[in-house]
Amino acid sequence: MIPARSHGFHRHDNARLIIFKGGGYRERTLTGEARLAHGDFILRPACHAHDGQGESSAGYVSIPIDANVLRDCLARHGHAPRRGRVPDDWDGDGHSLLKHVETRPYESRPDCTPLDRAASRLIDPEPPALSDLAEELDLKPWEFSRAFRARFGLSPTGYRCEARLQRAISLMVGAPARLSQIAADAGYADQSHFCRELRQRTGHTASRLARLVGG
């Protein structure tokens, strides 16, 4: 069992089937979150940004499964993570778990505070200016940035960039669209802007990332 330590937003190159053991764990994406306990499992797409926070006793095991099978399963749900519960009579085979157990999406991130609502607006294809969000919250820009980072682990600019990149990655899944069209639909200035930011944030070229996510 691998300890499920707390960590900030990051990505993994490969899609994963993960079963949680021991204590509780909370995983967050830019748009949703899942509170997980012993016996829960998640299907996480390749290169999907997430963070997590676990109790000291929390851990997980990663179940080997054919990458194409897992990728195709996730692609049916729009390249979004899924969660489920391991049945008591499970035989330990990852393929049977995917075939017979129903999964569901993560819960939507709550809009319970002004900062939560600001974060929700930053993931829009055409997000408002950061100065406008700060003014709406009656904060100076630096106060807004500091409060935002304390809550989400990313600066407002970083959060907006991650949301735009995640949107582009989702558009690449199973889609033969041209990179220029994906860049435009995701909100980038042009294809060069998209490819440059993609390389900076993932370490991959667009063609390499397309292979990882099934594009």
Summarize the topology.
Layout (H helix, E strand, L loop, with lengths): L1 E2 L3 E4 L5 E6 L3 E4 L3 E5 L3 E5 L5 E5 L4 E4 L4 H9 L6 E4 L8 H7 L3 E2 L1 E2 L5 H9 L7 H7 L4 H12 L3 H17 L6 H8 L4 H12 L3 H8 L2
Antiparallel strand pairs: 1-8, 2-7, 3-6, 3-8, 4-5, 4-7, 5-11, 6-9, 9-10
Helix pairs in contact: 4-5, 6-7, 6-8, 7-8
* Main β-sheet, spatial strand arrangement: 1-8-3-6-9-10
Q: Any idea what the CATH architecture of the largest domain is?
A: Sandwich
Radius of gyration: 18 Å
Query: What is the CATH third-level topology name of the largest domain?
Result: Jelly Rolls
Measured distance between first and last alpha carbons = 32 Å
Number of helices: 9
Tell me how many strands there are: 11
As for the number of domains, it is: 2
Major sheet characteristics: 6 strands, antiparallel
Q: What is the H-and-E element order? A: EEEEEEEEHEHEEHHHHHHH
The CATH class designation of the largest domain is Mainly Beta
Strand composition percent: 15-25%
Tell me roughly what share of residues is in helical segments.
40-55%
In the predicted model, the low-confidence regions spanning at least 5 consecutive residues are none
Q: Any idea what the shape is?
A: globular
Overall average residue pLDDT: 87
Provide the structure class.
alpha+beta
